[in-house]
Design brief:
By secondary structure, this protein is an alpha/beta fold. It has a domain at about 5-40 and about 130-305: 3-Layer(aba) Sandwich (Rossmann fold). It contains 12 helices and 14 strands. The chain has helices at about 15-25, 50-60, 75-85, 95-110, 115-125, 150-160, 180-185, 200-205, 210-215, 235-245, 250-255, 290-305, and strands spanning about 5-10, 30-35, 40-45, 45-50, 130-135, 140-145, 150, 165-170, 190-195, 220-225, 225, 230, 265, 280. The chain has a 7-stranded parallel sheet, with helices on both faces. α1 (about 15-25) packs parallel to α2 (about 50-60), α1 crosses α12 (about 290-305) and α4 packs across α5.
Length: about 300
């Protein structure tokens, strides 16, 4: 089967790198990225979408090359002044990054949807790849921890992910997927789940109304975010033992997604899960060439399985 249309599900840094690789190897118009918005929150009166912005900055070639999030060459004059004046400075907002949040907040106040605003930003950053938020309504990820219930940014950034997580959940009714999300999945030849945290980056997308059912009809390939028994980045390595009651591994990722998966890409040398086709490959993406190489291998694997 020749793959012509791809949907990628993504959170922040790891997923964004694979999305960039897919954008490099696929023809224009072939890729749609559906992005987690469970991390979104209001800070300094501004509506901030960390994962959407990481995708935008990465595809625009503006992301910080080492940390993977934020902007390269960023300055923090506004943050320093806020801190001097006694304001909250625990979430590091850069000066140019503020421009994105100011425009988004103004557009939301004017009545535009998050989907429409994201597309405006995509075009302003001269990105050809389609980028869709998972939904247009607030859907904050909440975490029950040993220190009580915390919202995602309070837990990850302010508390540095230290409180042990016992449950991940979302308040309120199940939201409809954003316009275009279900259609993109229905039209896709394959769905690729990036190496993002399954609990707080991918599950929020799958929990939107109709998304899991639509994806279940498609060949789905995931890239494991676990390498050598540890997470490449972020708190996943500490979350799996408390949430899944097992050690971090590719098998834990495979079991989490269960019957959704047609195949799993794992780090070369890691133990494969039982009963699921796997592709061993170097999955750590240190350069843009690494991203393109891994994306090409994922698509070739998907063509075989599809």
């Amino acid at each position: 089967m020749r793959i012509q249309r791809v949907v990628a599900l993504s959170g922040g840094v790891g997923g964004a790198k694979l999305v960039d690789g897919l954008a490099q190897v696929l023809p224009p118009g072939a890729l749609t990225t559906i992005v987690n918005t469970g991390d979104d929150f209001v800070h300094w009166g501004l509506f901030i979408c960390p994962d959407l912005d990481t995708i935008l900055y990465t595809l625009a070639g503006l992301a910080h090359p080492d940390q993977g999030w934020g902007l390269a060459g960023e300055t923090f004059g506004a943050l320093a002044m806020v801190e001097r004046l006694g304001g909250p400075a625990w979430f590091r907002l850069g000066d140019r990054d503020l421009g994105t949040h100011l425009v988004r907040t103004q557009r939301l106040a004017a009545g535009l949807s998050l989907t429409a605003i994201t597309d405006e930003l995509r075009r302003a950053y001269e990105i050809s790849t389609s980028i869709l938020p998972m939904c247009d309504v607030a859907r904050p990820t909440m975490l029950d921890t040993r220190d009580g219930t915390l919202d995602f940014q309070e837990w990850l950034v302010r508390r540095r992910g230290a409180p042990q997580v016992t449950r991940v959940w979302w308040p309120g009714p199940v939201p409809p997927a954003a316009p275009g999300v279900i259609a993109a999945i229905d039209n896709a030849d394959v769905v690729v789940i990036g190496p993002s945290n399954p609990y707080v980056s991918i599950d929020p997308i799958l929990a939107c109304d109709g998304v899991r059912a639509a994806i279940a009809k498609k060949p789905v390939i995931a890239v494991s975010p676990i390498v050598g028994g540890a997470a490449v980045k972020g708190p996943l390595g500490a979350m799996i033992p408390t949430l899944a009651r097992r050690e971090p591994s590719a098998a834990a990722i495979a079991d989490h997604y269960g019957s959704l998966l047609r195949g799993l890409v794992i780090e070369r040398g890691d133990a494969p899960p039982d009963g699921l086709p796997t592709l061993p490959a170097p999955t750590v993406m240190k350069t843009r060439d690494d991203r393109a190489r891994l994306a090409a291998e994922v698509l070739a694997f998907a063509e075989v399985l599809a």
